[in-house]
Amino acid sequence: MRTLLEFKHVSKQYGSETRALSDVNFAVKEGEFVSIIGPSGAGKSTLLRCINRMIDASSGEIVFDNASVLALNKNELKKLRTRIGMIFQHYNLVNRLSVIENVLHGRLGYKSTLAGVLGLYTKEEKAQAYRLLQVLGLQEQVYKRCDQLSGGQKQRVGIARALVQDPKMLLCDEPIASLDPNSSKVIMEHLRDICSKMGITVVVNLHQVDVAMNYSDRIVGVNKGTVVYDGPPAGLTKEKLRAIYGADYDKLTEEEGGRHVG
Amino acid sequence: MSGSFFLRKRLNTLFFCALVLALTIIAIIITEYDVVKGFTSVPKAAEWAVSNFVPNEKAMDKLPDIIDKLLETLLVSIAATSTAAVFALVFAVLGSQKTGIGGPFSMISRWIATVFRNIDVAAWSMILLFSFGQNVLTGYLALFFCSFGFLTRAFMESIDEMSMSSVEALRATGAGYIHIVAHSVIPSSLPQLISWVLFTIETNIRQATLIGILTGTGIGFLFNLYYKSLNYASASLAVIAIVVAIMIIESVSNYVRRVIM
Questions:
Q1: By CB atoms within 10 Å of each CB, which of A89, A90, A256, B189 scores lowest?
Q2: CB–CB of B169 and A111 under 8 A?
Q3: What is the pLDDT of residue A94?
Q4: Of B123 and A152, more confident
Q5: Confidence at A252, pLDDT banded by 50, 70, 90
Q6: Is the Cβ of B174 closer than 8 Å to some Cβ of chain A?
Q7: Where do the ABC transporter domain residues begin and end (chain A) (predicted)?
Q8: What whole-number distance in Å separates Cα of residue B142 and Cα of residue A149?
Q9: Is there a contact between A225 and A22 (Cβ–Cβ < 8 Å)?
Q10: How many interface pairs between A and B have CB atoms less than 8 angstroms apart?
C-alpha cells in the first residue's frame, strides 16, 4: 500500500513557552483507519489540524499525497483542503440552514467565487449530496433545519459534508466526544464503512481507548506532544497505555469501567 | 466582619444618594428653577393642550397633506436605513475581529463607525444643510450617515458574538473568504442583523420628524408650519398621525422579528 500521509520531525510551538508538538514522526497508508489517542492537552487536535494547515506547524515536513503541505501557497492549500474532509466534535454546522445546504457547503471549495456565493450547485452535486444523506440514514431530514436535529444526526450531516468533497482522507477531531453511546456506535460504524467500502483513509482523534481498539487498523499514542506508541491495537499493552496516559491511567480505566457498567 | 461589610455597603448607598441630591440642589440654584412653580404649571399646560391641541373638522381637511408628508418621511427613513445597512454590512464583515481581514482596515472600519455614530443626527442635518440646502436629500443623507455608523457598530458586535465553528468547518473544506461570509457568517447572524435594521428604521422615523423641522421637509416641516401659523388643531393631527405610524411600524417589526427568530 502507498503512503498517503507522512509526518517528518514535525514540531509546533505556541509563543516561546508552549510546545504543542515536538519531533512527531509517523506515516499513514492509503485506506488505513488510524486512531490518535492520548490525554487532554497532549496535542491530538493540533496534530490533526497541522495536516490540512488549519494550524501551521513550526518546523519539519508534512507530506500528503506526494506534496509538501507546508510549502503550498494559498491557492494550492485550498485545493489540498478540498481533498481532505474534516469532522468536528461540535459538528460545526450552520445551524440555521437546512441539512442539504450544509452538506453542499462541502462543494464550495470547487466553486468559482461567483458560483459559490450564489450557491449554484450542479444537478450532480445535489444528487450526490442526497445519495450520501441516504447512505447515512438521513433521507427523512434532508430539508430540516440543522438546529432541529439530535447530536448524532448533526454529526452524520457533518460526515456527509466531508464526503461530498470527494476526499482522499477524512480527519475526525473527537467525533463522538459529545454523543451518547448509541449514537457514538452509529458514527464509528459509518466511519469504519467509509474506510473499508469507499476506500477513504480515516484519521480519528479519540478519547475512548476501547473504541480506538475496536475500530482501528493502527493506533498512534500521543503524550505531551510526542508520539509514544505507533502500532496495531493488539500491541497496546497496559504498560504502553500507562506511557500514553501517564500515572493517571489506572484511575482512568476505573472510571471507564464504571461508566460502562452504568 | 460581616457587620462592617453591610455597614460599608449602606454607607456607600447613603453617600451616593447624598451626592445626587447635592448635585440636583446645585443645579436648581444655578438655573434659578422654581420647583413648585414647575410642577404647578403642569395642569395648566395640560389644560391649554386639551383646549387648543385637539384636531377639529377644519384640521381634517389637511389630512391628505399630512398623510402624504408622513409617507414621504417613512419612505426616506426606510430608504436611508436599508442603503446604510448594505454599506454597514460590508464594513462590519471586514472590520469584525472574527471575520475581519485584520490590520489597518479593521481599525479604519471601527474608527469610521465611531465618528459617524457620535455625530448626532441633528448635527449631521445642520452640516448637510450648507451643502444640499432644504430638501429631502439632506434629511436622507443625515439619516444615512447616522444609521451607517450605528449599524456598522451593531453588525460588528453581532458577528463577533456569533459562534465561529462553522467558519472553521468551511475553511477546512477549502472554501474561499467570500464563500465563507456568504454561507456561514451571514446566515448565522441574519436574525440579529435584521433585528438591528428594524430597530434602526423605528428610530429613524422618530428622528426624521425632528430632522424635517430642520431641513424643511416631510412631516416635521408640516408640523412646524402649522404650529408656527398657530394652527394648533392641524399640528396636533400631525402629531397623532406620527404616533399612529410609529405604533404600526413597531408592531410590524415585532411581528417580523418573531417570524425570523
A1: A256
A2: no
A3: 93
A4: A152
A5: low
A6: yes
A7: 5-249
A8: 46
A9: yes
A10: 86
B171 in contact with A at a CB cutoff of 8 Å? Answer: yes
Residue A1 pLDDT > 80, yes or no?
no
Mean of the pLDDT values across residues B177-199? 92
Measured in angstroms, the CA of A210 and the nearest CA of chain B are apart by: 28
Average the pLDDT over B42-52 and give the result.
85
Question: In this complex, is the C-beta atom of B188 within 8 Å of any C-beta atom belonging to chain A?
Answer: yes
- The 8 Å CB, 24+ separation contacts for A225-229 are A225/A12, A225/A19, A225/A20, A225/A21, A225/A22, A225/A24, A225/A42, A225/A43, A225/A46, A226/A21, A226/A22, A226/A23, A226/A24, A227/A24, A227/A25, A227/A26
Nearest to A69, CA basis, from A51, A83, A54: A51
Q: What tens digit of pLDDT does each residue of A187-246 get?
A: 999 999 999 999 999 999 998 899 999 999 999 999 999 999 999 999 888 888 888 888
Chain B residues touching A80 at Cβ < 8 A: 174
User: Does the beta carbon of A109 lie under 8 angstroms from any beta carbon of chain B?
Assistant: yes
Judged by a CB distance cut-off of 8 A, whether residue B182 touches chain A is: yes
Residue A250 is predicted with a pLDDT of 66
Specify the CATH class of A3-261 in words: alpha beta
For residue A73, the distance in angstroms to the closest alpha carbon of chain B comes to 13
